[in-house]
Amino acid sequence: MFNKITRYTLATMLAILGAASLPVSAQISVGAKLGANLNQFSQPGTTIGFSAGAFASYRITSFLNVKVEPQYTLQGGARQTYYRDYSSLGGNVSSVEFINPNITMHNIEVPLLVELTLPEFAEENVIPKLIVGGSYTFMAQAIESRTERFIFTGTPTPPAVDVGYQHEDVTDNYTRNQFSAIVGLGVMFKTDKRDFQFDIRYRQGFSQVNLIKFPDAIQKTSSSSSIPANGVGGNLFTSTLSFNFSMTIFNF
């Protein structure tokens, strides 16, 4: 499936390069972009993020634009509840359960997009657009937030204690590099001085991002002890539904 997506992306990019070589008048626009994201892994649970960056758009014909959008974006998703077994260490903590973990990925993303419209809208002030393309993402940091439930040893067994709003840097548990496909719909509003655009996009990652691939994978603690991390295995793919606003600042 993902090989097909890769071949489709390469074919799209080659078509863009071929179209760019045509002897037509072109216009370059540069502007700023903001967005709100609904993020999810390939399992239940949604997290909210945002994006901020810039764009450069190259108009090849009256109905075809190519756009690149370097941006900072928050992606991620929810994970299943899991636990770590500490009973082998001989302390008073038997295990710790990590409840409702959420992952926030701090990313630098570079989407490369094609915006298509109909030629008859070229001179209109309101222009609908179809958006297709792909993106490369570099993950700078991943933070997991969760509630931690401490299960103690003893006779009788002491009651468990919940500690909320805990955070852990889990960058090493996820892939740094990711490739995705993007599709969306947008509307551009043209004025005398600048253009404004609203769009909705769906981004589907086709890079497997989970580096903890098995339910009983081993995580290293700060004391270099090997602790089973039960329930965090399996393949993960990211997806995002984003709502974006962009504004042209300069035209060349």
Q: Structural class of the secondary elements?
A: mainly beta
What's the order of the H and E elements? HEEEEEEEEEEEEE
User: Helix coverage percent of residues?
Assistant: under 10%
Strand content: over 45%
Q: What form results from the Cα inertia axes?
A: elongated
Sheet having the most strands: 13 strands, antiparallel
Radius of gyration: 23 Å
CATH class: Mainly Beta
The third-level CATH topology is Porin
Low-pLDDT ranges: 19-25
CATH architecture: Beta Barrel
> What's the total number of strands?
13
Describe the structure using short key phrases:
mainly beta, 13-stranded antiparallel β-sheet, 1 helix, Porin, 252 residues
Task: Characterise this structure.
The chain is mostly beta strands and 252 residues long. It has one domain: Porin (Beta Barrel). It contains one helix and 13 strands. Strands 1, 2, 3, 4, 5, 6, 7, 8, 9, 10, 11, 12 and 13 form a 13-stranded antiparallel β-sheet that branches. A hairpin with an 8-residue loop joins strand 7 (126-152) and strand 8. The longest helix has 19 residues, at 2-20.
